[in-house]
Amino acid sequence: RWCAAANGGSELAAVGGRVHETLAMKRLTASLWSEQADTEAFQKFLAVVNSAGAAPPERPSPGAPGEVAAYAKRAYMAVLDVGGRGGGSLLRTLDMSSGALLRVCDVATGPIAQYNQAAAPGERIAVGDFVMAVQGAGGASEEALRLLRDGGGRLEVSMRRPACFPAKLEKLGRQLGMEVSFNMANKSMAVSRICDGGALAAYNQGAAPERRVQPGDLVVGVNSKRGSAIELQAELLRSEVLELEVSRPA
C-alpha cells in the first residue's frame, strides 16, 4: 500500500491516495490508518495537557532555535524584511498544504531569523506558529503566497500561536478514516477530510468539542515522534494504537 515515484528529484509517496498539483506544488492526499504504543515522553506531555484542562501551546523540539518559554500574546504582527530578492527563502521556512493556513517550520534562517534578532521575546516567531495573513491577504490564499514568493521590501504578517492537543485512536479492525494533504518538504500533515465509520470519526464522537479533530487541523506528531510529513505518514502505518499530536491556531 506504499507507492513512491521520483519526479523532478522529489519523492512522492501515498497510501491508497492520489497525487495532484495545486499552486504549482506537489501535494499529497491519502487515506491513512494505524497505531503505536505509548512512550514515556508522550505520557509526560499528556499529564501537562490534562492538568491544564485546555489545549496548550505547541512546543518546539527541546533546544530548537526560537523556542519561547511563555507566550505573552496569542496573536501578534511581524514585519518581515525580504529585501529586493523576493520571499523565496521565506517560503522555504513554511509548511504549505491544501489547507487554509501556513505553519512555521524553521526559524533559524532567512527573514524570520533576522526578524527574531530584533523582536521582543513575546513577539518572536516560534516553530509551530501560524501565518494568518500577509499584507491583509488571508492565510494560504493565492495573493498571500504571491506576496511571500515575489514581494520585496517589508511584509506585514499577522501571526498566531498554536494550540496543540493529543488524540488517542484505536483502529479495532477499522481504517483510520482520515484524508491528509501535504507538500513533500512539510513537517506536518493537513487534515482534509474525516470519513464516516473510521477510527477517527469514532474518537470524535467521544471527545470534548474542543478536542475533536477537524478538517484544517494539522497533525504535527505521531506517537510522540516528529519529523517530515513522510516520516509521520510512515508512523501512522505501523501501529494499531495512535497518539496524534494535533495543532491549530490558538
Describe this structure in words.
By secondary structure, the chain is of the alpha+beta class. Helices cover 21% and strands 36% of the residues. The protein contains six helices and 15 strands. It has helices at 40-52, 88-91, 110-118, 142-150, 199-206, 229-238; strands at residues 2-7, 10-15, 18-22, 25-32, 75-83, 94-95, 102-104, 130-134, 137-138, 153-160, 162-170, 178-183, 189-194, 218-222, 241-249. The strands form three sheets. Strands 3-4-12-13-14-15-11 form a seven-stranded antiparallel β-sheet, with helices on both faces. Strands 5, 6, 7, 8, 9 and 10 form a six-stranded antiparallel β-sheet that branches. A two-stranded antiparallel sheet has the order 1-2. The radius of gyration is 18 Å and the shape is elongated.
First-to-last CA distance: 36 Å
Low-pLDDT segments: 1-70
Strand content: 35-45%
Q: Using the CA coordinates, give the radius of gyration.
A: 18 Å
The average pLDDT score comes to: 75
> Topology as H/E string?
EEEEHEHEEHEEHEEEEHEHE
Which outline best applies?
elongated
Strand order of the largest sheet: 3-4-12-13-14-15-11
**Helical content, roughly?**
10-25%
Which features characterize this protein?
single chain, six-stranded antiparallel β-sheet, 15 strands, disordered N terminus
How would you sum up this structure in a few lines?
By secondary structure, this protein is α+β, with helices and mostly antiparallel strands.
Note the topology.
Blueprint: E1 2-7, E2 10-15, E3 18-22, E4 25-32, H1 40-52, E5 75-83, H2 88-91, E6 94-95, E7 102-104, H3 110-118, E8 130-134, E9 137-138, H4 142-150, E10 153-160, E11 162-170, E12 178-183, E13 189-194, H5 199-206, E14 218-222, H6 229-238, E15 241-249
Antiparallel strand pairs: 1-2, 3-4, 4-12, 5-10, 6-7, 7-8, 8-9, 8-10, 11-15, 12-13, 13-14, 14-15
